[in-house]
Design goal:
Alpha-Beta Plaits; 17% helix; 11 strands; alpha+beta; two-stranded antiparallel sheet; 9-stranded mixed β-sheet; single chain
Length: 196
């Protein structure tokens, strides 16, 4: 039997693991959604983030997609407090210092409208006096809470974070909590990428 590849729309407040050893009750894990044994998440998506997650039992593919030298793009829709100006977007694009690290250049654009997403439960905090905006950010690295730290570093805290794409794979066609197995041809573009 060949390897298995699963594309999952992780809902908000779900841990990106199959077991929860924290001792806290009622925390959802991947086990609550995906009945396939021996597949593991490629990378991570924080508990308070949503969107695409790829799972597989193919160790080589897992390494290839996780290793920063292959620079696989990951795209996020990011709702931020206030409306970022051109200067903030330029800083995000060229890289910002977070902790002791400078982020790689990213593709960033202000979306003209809110993406078509299911409402989040619970909803984000809303303040009438503070407008919000949506950014589309494409990164080729994935450090811990990187997108949130980047937007905070330029003065626009993240309110909602949704991974909308992993390379050529898109969120469209899935709702929160849904998953589908990928066909072999859908994985081929990842196999042919070269290290940078």
């Amino acid at each position: 039997m060949g390897y298995r590849y699963v594309l999952f729309y992780k809902p908000y407040d779900v841990l990106t693991q199959f077991t929860d050893n924290s001792g806290e009750n009622g925390r959802s894990t991947l086990k609550d959604y995906i009945p396939i044994p021996d597949v593991y998440a490629v990378g991570r998506l924080d508990r308070d983030s949503e969107g695409l997650l790829l799972l597989t039992d193919d160790g080589k593919m897992q390494h290839r997609l996780s290793d920063p030298k292959f620079a696989h793009p990951r795209t996020y829709w990011v709702q931020v407090e206030r409306i970022p100006d051109a200067s903030a977007i330029a800083r995000l694009e060229t890289g910002v210092a977070i902790q002791d690290y400078r982020t790689r250049p990213a593709k960033v654009r202000l979306l003209p409208a809110e993406p078509a997403l299911e409402p989040r439960e619970p909803p984000i905090r809303f303040r009438k006096s503070v407008p919000t905006a949506w950014l589309e950010m494409t990164l080729t690295e994935g450090r811990n809470r990187q997108v949130r730290r980047m937007t905070a570093a330029v003065g626009f805290p993240t309110l909602r974070l949704v991974r909308s794409a992993i390379g050529h794979l898109r969120l469209e066609g899935l709702k929160p909590g849904e998953w589908r197995e990928l066909q072999t041809e859908e994985i081929k573009p990842f196999r042919s990428s070269k290290p940078r």
